[in-house]
Amino acid sequence: MEKEELLLSAIAGDINAFQALFAGFQHQLKSYLYRLVTDRDDVDDLTQDTFVRAFTKIGTFNRRSSLKTWVFRIATNLAYDHLRKLKRWQADAQDRAADLAISSEEIREVFWMTHDTSPAGAYEMKEHIDYCFTCISKTLPIEKQVALILKDIYDFQVKEICLILGKTEGVIKHLLNDARNTMTNIFEHRCALINKNGICHQCSHINEIFNPKQNQQEELMKLELVKASKRYNREQLFELRTLLVKAIDPLNAAGTDFHEEIMNCLKTAIGEKSNFFDRKRDKAE
Asked: If one looks up domain 1-86 in CATH, what number appears?
């Protein structure tokens, strides 16, 4: 069945047709939701809720946009409802997570176990740069985070983001400009990869721990971000960072499980989770 026929059938209430269309962008939707909520269980719940909500309301789809854009609007509204109950992160959230990990032998043991035994427990610096981008983006107000990720990571057009957020083109451009400036400023002052005065060496420091036999400088120089750090301006470096992030699937990368544990540590450090081991106990039960 052609896509147009599937769409007409879906609008008429055919759940199988809707499922076929939804499957075409479901993976990207889950990746997007993960960058917003940073919890795989929440992503699964939100994806399911999005599917149900979208199919229930499919009769109202007026085709002013693609079905994908329309579904992303529903998912974004659900994620917004979830996120507004939580405080936005501070730029030092990763530092606080590092302090917690250093002070807890149990947490470090979980990191080692995940790294040594999980098929998705590898550590690569480029994946940690992606993790860092996600963390820093969560310091932004939600609408700025959404606009930035949709445009710079998932290549949505401004007019599509207008429909997703229910804002005018001028407002979306303003949100994007502010979000990029804020992110660029934070990276410029924090990231030692692009500024020798940067205070954060976390990605290379963790690499030294978990990949001790690896040539550190050789690995660093594989990153275009590092090679360009002395000749590019800050806006160009931010664009390079987004290109690196776009190439990584945060839900299915080589170190997905490893970074989930780091994320869990961070959420514990900032008080978003009461105990690092709560999630593990819940899953075991």
From this structure: 1.10.1740.10
pLDDT digits (tens, 9 = 90+) for 113-170: 999 999 999 999 999 999 999 999 999 999 999 999 999 999 999 999 999 999 999 9
**Residue 65 CB-half CA count within 13 A:** 20
Residue 197, classed as helix, strand or coil, is: coil
Measured CA to CA, the distance from residue 204 to residue 247 in angstroms comes to 20
Read off the pTM: 0.94
Token pair for 165: 């957020």
The pLDDT tens digits of the residues spanning 55-76 come to 999 999 999 899 999 999 999 9
Is the distance from CB of 140 to CB of 179 less than 8 angstroms? yes
CA–centroid distance for 52 within its chain: 23
The DSSP element (H or E) to which 115 belongs, if any, is: helix 105-117
